[in-house]
Write a structure and sequence with these properties.
This protein has helices at 28-36, 54-62, 125-132, 147-152, 154-160, 171-178, 183-192, 232-247, 254-271, 285-298; strands at 3-6, 10-15, 20-26, 42-48, 65-72, 78-84, 91-97, 117-120, 140-144, 166-170, 197-201, 207-210, 215-218. It is an alpha/beta fold. It has a 9-stranded mixed beta sheet with strand order 5-4-1-8-9-10-11-12-13, with helices on both faces. A 4-stranded mixed beta sheet has the order 3-2-6-7. The chain is globular. The structure holds adenosine monophosphate (AMP).
């Protein structure tokens, strides 16, 4: 089954303590779509300007990512720039230029409207709702968000939450949203705002998953070399949503979500090993499954297969 992915498509400039690269493919939808494409056909929704390289459309085609929902307009593509501190965790945004994003009104092609699985990757919550309203039938909706929207678009975010099955956010965002210091209270509190499930990412410390009476905690895949953490969260969300869309025929269960979280973490671990999407462009299922099995062993993670 396909997964529809809405989000930002960007040209990024990223500086780490050892390297700096500019005009890299970035954006929440780009990372999520690449990760999801290993498990399910992807229908991408976004906007790019006339400066966006044709080679990236060729890359999407090679990954069987449908780009009928990507608008190409005159003007500049959304640009973002960030700089990492020595811990490769603390990040400062140097600039955000919305450019063609400013006038983005996602209109879904007719062929997209019956997609069962949807990932609303990080983008303004009003746009996330706007896309959901155009869908004809939905089985499972995953949404990601960020501190910017919690601080500047809280009403829109609150309106979106009851329409979402799984909300993914990071630890500081979960605390900010609920004003709770305990992540357990925060996860449970966010469930009360609407989503049936909540996943809280804790960076190098793994992730937590909350259901009605269920709870799951896993670590992160241990990596020695991190070159660029940009997009790890988007890749995690894409891996989860892609795995669910491509594998789960019936109702999504908590056990399915536990497996999805491990696959999301595996894809995110590949993402940070190189700048931009470089590592995500040419993975094999053998590489992914090998890391999945190693992850299971390391975390003593058992699921009913
Ligand atoms: P992450 O590392 O998961 O925070 O995601 C980084 C990606 O998000 C970069 O590739 C950026 O282009 C993109 N991004 C940064 N700010 C925004 C924003 N306000 N809305 C949507 N995408 C953004």
């Amino acid at each position: 089954m396909s997964v529809l992915i809405l989000g930002s498509i960007a040209l990024d400039t990223v500086k780490t303590p050892v390297e700096e690269h500019s005009d890299l493919l970035g954006g929440s939808a780009s990372y999520a779509a690449a990760a999801a494409s290993y498990f399910a056909p992807v229908r991408l929704v976004g906007i790019v300007g006339s400066d966006f390289p044709q080679s990236e459309f060729d890359f999407w085609k090679s990954r069987k990512i449908d780009v009928d929902g990507v608008q190409r307009v005159n003007g500049k593509t959304f640009r973002w720039s960030g700089e990492y501190a020595w811990d490769m965790n603390t990040r400062e945004t140097r600039s955000t230029d919305l450019n063609v994003f400013e006038k983005f009104e996602p209109k879904l092609p007719e062929s997209y409207r019956e997609t069962d699985f949807v990932l609303l990757a990080n983008i303004a919550p009003s746009l996330q709702s706007h896309v959901l309203k155009q869908m004809k039938k939905l089985r499972f909706v995953v949404a990601d968000t960020m501190n910017l929207w919690i601080e500047t678009a809280r009403k829109d975010l609150d309106a979106l939450l009851p329409t979402v099955d799984l909300l993914i956010l990071n630890d500081s965002e979960a605390r900010e949203m609920t004003k709770e210091t305990s992540l357990i209270k925060a996860g449970r509190g966010i469930r009360k705002m609407g989503p049936r499930y909540v996943a809280i990412k804790k960076g190098e410390h793994g992730a937590l998953l909350f259901g009605e009476d269920e709870f799951f905690s896993c670590g992160a895949y241990p990596l020695e070399d991190i070159h660029d953490p940009t997009g790890a969260g988007d890749t995690f969300a894409g891996g989860m949503a892609g795995y669910l869309a491509g594998t789960i025929g019936g109702k999504v269960t908590f056990t399915d979500l536990r497996k999805a979280i491990i696959y999301g973490s595996v894809l995110a671990s590949f993402c940070v090993e190189a700048f931009s999407l470089e590592k995500l462009r040419g993975l094999t299922m053998d590489q992914i499954n090998e890391r999945y099995e190693a992850f299971k062993m390391m975390s003593q993670f058992e699921v009913a297969e």
